[in-house]
Amino acid sequence: MVVKNLFMTAMMVAASVGLVNAQTEKKQVVEEGGTGPFKSEVVGDASCPGFTVYRPQNLKEVVAQQGALPVIVYANGACFNNNVEMRLLLSEVASYGYVAAAIGPYDEEDVMAQWRGVLKSAYPETKGEVIMANGEKILPMTAEEKKAQQEQQAKQREEAAKKAKKNKKQQETPQFSTYPKMLLEVLDWLTEQNATQGSEYYHCLALDHVAAMGQSCGGAQVLGVAYDPRIKTCVMLNSGIGDMAMMGTTKENLKNLHTPMFYMIGGPGDIAYVNAQKDYERIADNIPVVMLNSKDGHSGTYYEKHGGNYAKAVVKWLDWQLKGRVGQSALFLDDEYLKMKFPEWQGVRKNF
Fold this sequence. Notes:
By secondary structure, the chain is of the alpha/beta class.
């Protein structure tokens, strides 16, 4: 019995630090696996339960054809422990030959149900209409709906205040359930799996080609770990730190940047717009940085088919930065090309 208990304890410890070989436990295919040359899948792994992996199907076959694949570590909007809202974009990116590990356990929630509420409550006024990937048209809240929402929020705040007053010793619930170093932890796990014979990822990952990507609050988490030398580029989606302090990150973290930076922002209607402009101005003169602005607001195009135009821009940036495909740089370096591809977008760049 003692020997059995010791064995079980050892197994639990090994699993907690990612020493157990990757074990696909659950998986699904989103939007027929994306539009890229390698159909993608969403994977829940028993040895890494706090994360979700987006990767090409038949991974070993793809690697045999293309060589080891670049890696993306991703942090969610609102620093949520759930990546369903970005499922369309991440699945699309994976179909172009990337392995993306996103914070948050595997979840089969309905992507459209997630986005319906987000878009309804934060309707991007700069867009003429909002149509989701399933063809559903989202309309802005009516005056009655806004009033009902405000009343409900006021009631929730009142109830929370009463509860706190009733139990003064009650500890305040942490605002976030994730933290920046989770991006490095999952990168450590992928590194172990890449080196472990028998793992699904054995010799499949190009760990010298790693991107850190985050949306909104997730971008603050990216800045919090951007010092890590393994990270070769950062993608900031509807995000900027500005003069804020979030997730332990401030404008001081911009001094730790050492890789090319890409900011994809939703224009003046994006709550991250002002902060992103400040970041752009403050980033040192030795760091290449591109900022593109659309009129999509803070929700980008992530709810559109295959992640919409934001996914297209992300793939082009990653292809350029991680795969060395210089032809993909036109969107970021050529104003005429940008105007031709996305007429409503505006772009700036420096240090190239």
